[in-house]
Amino acid sequence: MPFMIALLLKLTFLALPAAQQPKVPQAWNADTIEWQKVDPDGQKWAVLEGRSDASGEAFTYAAFIPAGRHEHHWHSSDARVVVVKGTLKVSFGDTIDLQHLKAYPVGSYLFVPANVKHTMAADEDTIIIGTAFGPWSTHHDHDHAHDGMSH
């Protein structure tokens, strides 16, 4: 009988998905983010937890927007964003709009629905931390991109 129990346990574990990392408490601030991607123009990107490529899985990301940067883009899924350093400037619309940017200082929270086109800018080095569901992709308005963000 113990052999059968051991066999059943083994078969049960074989049926489980590939080994996943156990979830552990974690915390970040503007100074502790480990950037995974750094673009030539100084923009940085990191997935802090979760997977941005997994369908239906929530993930948290960080983005660094250097002073003087602006671009027009939209995302494949809803984004929930908190400004943790600097001031994020955003305007919404189908084309780049630097005239109607609204400033969101540290502590601001933004909800940007999927496929809503927006202009994002920063006059000072700015860091945002956001959450979204995968699979995640960012699309740029190439006619108006200013060294487009590729995250």
Fold topology:
Elements: H1 2-15, E1 37-38, E2 44-50, E3 58-65, E4 69-75, E5 79-85, E6 87-92, E7 102-105, E8 109-112, E9 118-122, E10 126-133, E11 138-140
Antiparallel strand pairs: 1-2, 2-3, 3-10, 4-9, 4-11, 5-8, 5-10, 6-7, 6-9
What does this structure look like?
By secondary structure, this protein is mainly beta. The protein has a single domain, classed as Jelly Rolls (Sandwich), CATH 2.60.120. The protein contains one helix and eleven strands. The strands form two sheets. A six-stranded antiparallel β-sheet has the order 1-2-3-10-5-8, with no helix packed on it. A hairpin with a 5-residue loop joins β1 and β2. The longest helix is centred in the N-terminal third of the chain and has 14 residues. The radius of gyration is 20 Å and the shape is globular.
Report a brief summary of the structure.
Helices cover 9% and strands 40% of the residues.
The major beta sheet can be summarized as:
6 strands, antiparallel
Number of helices: 1
Q: Which overall shape is indicated by the principal axes computed on the Cα atoms?
A: globular
Determine the strand fraction and express it as a percent band.
35-45%
SSE string: HEEEEEEEEEEE
CATH homologous superfamily placement: Jelly Rolls
Task: Please identify the structural class as seen in this structure.
Answer: mainly beta
How many discrete domains? 1
Mean pLDDT: 84
Unreliable residue stretches: 2-16, 143-151
Q: And the CATH topology?
A: Jelly Rolls
How many β-strands, per DSSP? Answer: 11
CATH class: Mainly Beta
Distance between the termini: 54 Å
Task: Please list the strands of the largest sheet in the order they lie side by side.
Answer: 1-2-3-10-5-8
